[in-house]
Specification:
With 232 residues, the protein is an alpha/beta fold. The chain has seven helices and six strands.
Amino acid sequence: MDKELISILIDKTEKFSIAETLAFLANEFKNQAVFSTSFGQEDQVITDIIASQNLPITIFTLDTGRLFQETYDVFHKTLTKYKMNIKTYFPEATAVEELLNQKGPNSFYDSVENRKECCFIRKVAPLTKALKGNSVWITGLRAEQSVNRNDLALFEYDENFAILKFNPLLKWTLKDVEDYLEINNVPQNTLHKQGFVSIGCAPCTRAITAGEDIRAGRWWWESSYKECGLHQ
């Protein structure tokens, strides 16, 4: 990716609102701007903006096969409220079958390597498929979500997936997100009211307690670099 292009995008959108920037990207990269949602609070903000502006941006989600029922519930509520299509990508059945046949259903608890293997099969490989042929990947990442995300930029090039990434909520606080959702009556995962801030697969997510890091509930049995491979 040409760094000059990123500089141009930054200059052109510097005074734009998030909605205006999304509209600009949808027009600049026609039929090649996509937004990935896991139905978390940040993603629901962006979904609401895209839907309220009727922007031609494809929204997709990754169904790992091990999500909380509450995640499916907010998925359904989102479809009902916005009357829009959200494309779903599943992991390859043969890869999941081989993993379970060889290591059983809970191998991710045994080692970081096993956990990353499961994440790759259920999340990274489907994401690679979802992003293929597109030019811009819109995410709900925020800098304060983890130390690993402090160095993210508003626009950046993702080397792993060879795509331009736009992080519109980068500088938002959790309060900013929560306020937006409440003011605009946006569907939310009910687990957020039960101490779940960052929500992934059911067996790999727990609620956090006061004072814990936002992502402490993800892969809580690990003390390593807590990412699944979608965002490095």
